[in-house]
Specification:
Mean pLDDT: 88
Distance between the termini: 24 Å
CATH class: Mainly Beta
Low-confidence stretches: 1-36
Order of helices and strands: EEHEHHEEEHEEEEEEEEEEEE
Number of strands: 18
Radius of gyration: 19 Å
Number of helices: 4
CATH architecture: Sandwich
Length: 284
């Protein structure tokens, strides 16, 4: 439900003068409902790191999911900001809350789970890194092992696009600034996907031999801010190109603790869904 992106300003340039208004002040950026309606020339990105995101499909009634949490946490500590973790709870039977604890599933997580085939198999935990393929199939795996080799294969590549995201809480509205810099020419159409995730959620989790009523769930997907597959990026894709867009987002629930929330920004190939690069930022 993309009800929260809204226009934040108007451009004081007539249509005939748009060509001369390609670079403007940040307070004039416009975002239209549901997508990044306008992109403008940016100042570039200082950090040209290639990063990876591990999307873990998990469930509170999944007995082996805590083991995957440990493995993923260890990997994020090892790789630092080059590996971003995201926990996705769909609406399967295994994600039903245990007792009077918060529901962690989301509509958007359910859509992705169906698309990537996790919901149909009911196999949790299952993970995907940068939405890569193994042959003609998605490279889905059980994230209790096999994380490092997949991450190394991605972060050791020369990045095609550098990305930086910044976010601030302005009285309950989150302002998100996304900068892109093309380090290589990219000919495919691209999309930008923005999402919000939350750390520190206490909800009962099953283990093989007991239940932990005080289990801390981190990196929990709360909402996809753009369209589920991202907003089109207005760019030529030429090496050296620098683009920027600004978003305003009002969280869908007042129960989320914005102090524990992060924004994730992903640049993807529009046709294949493969993620080229990703960035994460805390909401300040």
């Amino acid at each position: 439900m993309k009800r929260i992106l809204k226009s934040i300003a108007t451009i004081a340039c007539a249509t005939a003068l748009l060509a001369s208004c390609d670079k403007i002040d940040s307070n004039e950026y416009i975002v239209f409902s549901g997508a990044a309606g306008e992109w403008y020339d940016g100042n570039g990105v200082s950090d040209h790191s290639q990063r990876a995101i591990i999307e873990k499909y998990t469930a509170v009634r999944c007995l082996n999911c805590p083991i995957a949490d440990v493995a993923i946490t260890d990997a994020t500590l090892q790789y630092g900001d080059k590996l971003i973790a995201l926990a996705i709870h769909d609406s399967s039977n295994l994600t039903r809350p245990i007792g009077d604890t918060p529901r962690l599933s989301s509509e958007d997580g359910n859509t992705w789970s169906n698309f990537f085939g996790i919901f149909a198999t009911g196999e949790y935990p299952t993970a995907l890194i940068n939405r890569t393929l193994n042959g003609s199939a998605w490279d889905l795996f059980t994230p209790t092992s096999g994380i490092n080799s997949r991450v190394d294969n991605i972060i050791n590549q020369t990045p095609k696009v550098a990305i930086q995201a910044d976010a601030a809480n302005n009285d309950g509205t989150v302002s998100i600034n996304v900068n892109l810099e093309f380090l290589q020419t990219v000919s495919e159409p691209l999309t930008l996907t923005l999402l919000i995730m939350e750390d520190g959620i206490i909800a009962t989790q099953k283990y093989p031999d007991h239940e932990d009523e005080n289990y801390v769930h981190n990196h929990v997907l709360r909402d996809v801010i753009t369209d589920i597959w991202g907003a089109d990026i207005d760019c030529t894709g030429a090496s050296g190109e620098k683009r920027v867009a600004l978003f305003n987002y009002t969280p869908a629930s007042s129960e989320w603790n914005l102090a524990n929330c992060h924004i994730v920004a992903m640049v993807s190939k529009k046709d294949s869904r493969e993620i080229l690069n990703v960035a994460e930022c805390h909401i300040d």
